[in-house]
Structure of Nucleotide sugar dehydrogenase:
Amino acid sequence: MKLCTIGLGYIGLPSSAMFADHGTEVVGVDIDPQIVNLLNTGTIHIEEPGLEDVIKRVVANGKFRATLTPERADVFLIAVPTPNLNDTYKSCDLKYVISAVNNMLPFLEKGNVVIVESTIAPRTMDDHVRPLIEAAGFTIGEDIYVVHCPERVLPGQILHELIHNNRIVGGLTPACAEAGAAVYETFVQGEIVRTDAKTAEMSKLMENTFRDVNIALANELTQVCHQLEINVLDVIEMANMHPRVNLHHPGPGVGGHCLAVDPYFIVAKAPSLARIIHTARQTNVQMPQFVAEQAARLVGSRVRPKIAVFGVTYKGNVDDMRESPAVEVIEQLLDRGLDVAVCDPHVERSISTRFELVDELEAIQGADLALVLVDHDEFKQFDSRRLANYMRTPLLFDTKGIVNELDAVKVLNFGNLHTH
Ligand code: SAJ
């Protein structure tokens, strides 16, 4: 089997690596020549544990190579971004998916399987992809097998989850679903469930929406408890002792290219009905403002206060800053005219033009508050003497609930913020 992957990002690259490592001949296509060149030397452009080792192996044994244009293959796998459009409800921008399908069409032959893994709005396969392939003269389900197989892997543990997660394969016809499932059987050990395309699209969106709504509930509860002077972390721990309750963790907001993006695709398709989903998004979007307000309050009495921020990525142990709530908190602190110094051991250079990253020592020097915005492993153990020695005020605000009590530094979190 030969597979042509279009889009070598966070999903296309690890998926290509898995197929190649299980014997499939893979050619990966990306529009960025730098990424293509880098990959062909066995070096990767994203942070994902274990991935570079696999890429090195499959480049060396000739099972994987990267290139700039699609070519003939048995299977085409589209894994390009689907950002939000800048319209009222931030609907799904299909331009990269449409362009990937159009770029692939000249190479499509009878018997091929076309897989879209990109997260897409409900009905995209039926209303947008199907017409393009039919217009090229193919009968779907007879000549060409077209499926949506949403990716569901968690950044940070992609390689494990690619193999062990269950997969949903939604075909435009039952024969399509069958052909798509056979492709994944080459390496997937989880269950492969066959369904239709629109069910697969909506299931994927609802997984991330479920999480977003539940985090919004935790974030709303945090603000309610803060006002009522109740320890929210204790409340969550105790409520979760009930066998059917699973409150999520509050935080500085919700980021990444999935949870902060996908729920809008549902809202945009049915705005007057998807009210809980929309409100949850608004609650999570507003969370950085609450954090910035609290941080500003904590340093309010100091002359020319300085805040040392720990973490800019959208979550712990990744280098990805897309939709990061930490960036939003920092921007809001800067808007308030505060002196902010940011450090993050997982990021080399900031994408924001408004602040630079410094090393930890420079960040804490003379600081009045250490503000933890990301749960990187490195931030779980602070040297409290070192913090106390270099900071002007030994105070830490941990928005992720990961820092234990420190002897020389006062640690605040969402649970005890109201006490200070
Ligand atoms: N977060 C909280 N509280 C929590 C859990 C997460 O504030 O209790 C925040 C994180 O800090 C982060 C955001 O939510 O800012 C998203 O992080 P995440 O770890 O929940 O999810 P992602 O975006 O890294 O990956 C999700 C996963 N979806 C689900 O768990 C349902 C993954 O399986 C999907 O493949 C991925 O989205 C995707 O690509 O859609």
Q: What stands out?
A: The chain has a mean pLDDT of 96. The chain is about 40% helix and 15% strand.
